[in-house]
Design goal:
The chain is α+β, with helices and mostly antiparallel strands. The chain contains 17 helices and 7 strands. The protein is globular and about 50 Å long.
């Protein structure tokens, strides 16, 4: 299930000191150190033309959508998108810029980044629609602007969420790092070694026993089993997953649930974060609590069942529409301890009073 716990962000290592005896000028401020086998380096940060209200890095990367991006500065994150190794950071005015560490093509790297960030979808327009239907969302959005849903590679997203089943952030990250290390090495940034995500062909060479030795437990059989099923697809597993972007949500969920270890909740995560199914609602205990508190108070105290999970998803879609998954993402982020600190104390005082009033009724 999607791990909606506060991310444990790795502490970046300090830049290496120069090795030669001749003094060298320091690198530009906030520019991560770079080392790679065969890099094609670029020497400057480039504006992405996205404001913080359209993309907040701390509200997007360490909130359970992906486990492959590393925090390499106070407002800076580094990761791989295909064969491209990039960093993103906020400037003093909140705008976002990017830095290419290595890539086969600078233009391809930017296109891949824009696609990954789902920049074709305007958060401002979505937030306006959501706010018209929900006064509470209006208040939250003032303090949590820029929480964007990513558009990840489906194979990468699928494997990450197979690792997330009944797991915690620390272990998930270690498992994902292990799988990632099987891919092509792209470079090292602030002490983090980063790789292109391995292909299905490469993953098919990894045995269940090898994964178990690496600490995957019962998830090892799900990963190897899923890779085997995908490898048997006539047009290839990667292409089969991409084809699910063209299906209705129900059909995409059903197709994903044919894979070993994928249930409705994990399928909804994959659908939302990689398959353009913007109204997919991954329902776990945290989302259940949000729903019973604000959308379906009559179900408070009930036990979450598959039938009620469907009812929760319907309630979100009914209130927020075709991009309900984006609204649910922000509402969930607001419940994370790390993000509650960003909200004024009076907001939660009001929430507590409302909760107490409902209990008395």
């Amino acid at each position: 299930m999607r791990p909606f716990l506060a991310m444990k962000r790795p502490r970046p290592s300090p830049p290496l000191s120069p090795t030669s005896t001749k003094p060298k000028p320091p690198p530009p401020p906030q520019t991560p150190p770079i080392s790679a086998k065969k890099p094609k380096p670029y020497s400057q940060w480039v504006p992405l033309n996205l404001s913080q209200s359209e993309l907040s890095l701390p509200l997007t990367f360490p909130t359970g959508q992906t486990f492959r991006w590393k925090q390499t500065g106070p407002l800076q994150y580094t990761g791989a998108i295909g064969p491209h190794l990039l960093s993103l950071k906020h400037l003093h005015n909140g705008d976002v810029c990017y830095f290419i560490h290595s890539t086969p093509s600078e233009s391809a790297a930017k296109l891949a980044l824009l696609d990954f960030l789902n920049v074709g979808i305007s958060l401002a327009k979505l937030w306006q629609v959501f706010s018209e239907n929900d006064s509470r969302f209006t208040e939250l959005a003032k303090h949590l602007k820029g929480a964007r849903v990513l558009r990840q590679d489906p194979v990468e997203c699928l494997v990450q969420f197979l690792c997330s089943s009944n797991n915690n952030i620390g272990r998930i990250t270690k498992m994902v790092d292990f799988v990632s290390s099987l891919g092509t090495y792209l470079g090292s940034v602030c002490g983090f070694e980063l790789h292109e995500f391995p292909s299905l062909e490469r993953l098919s060479a990894v045995s269940e026993e090898e994964l178990r030795r690496a600490g995957f437990g019962y998830r090892a059989k799900y990963i190897t089993g899923t890779v085997g099923v995908l490898q048997s697809k006539p047009d290839g597993g990667a292409q089969w997953l991409l084809s699910l972007r063209k299906l209705d949500l129900g059909e995409a969920i059903d197709a994903l649930c044919t894979l070993p270890g994928v249930g409705p909740k994990v399928a909804a995560c994959i659908a939302l974060f990689s398959l353009d199914q913007h109204h997919a609602i991954p329902v776990d205990t945290h989302v259940w609590q949000i729903a019973t508190r604000y959308l379906l108070p009559e179900l408070a105290g009930a036990r979450l069942t598959p039938k009620l999970s469907g009812r929760v998803a319907e309630a979100f879609v009914s209130k927020y529409g075709e991009y309900a998954g984006w609204a649910q993402t922000l509402l969930f982020i607001a419940e994370l301890p790390s993000q509650k600190a960003l909200l004024p104390s009076h907001f939660w005082d009001i929430e507590e009073k409302k909760t107490c009033q409902k209990k008395r009724q």
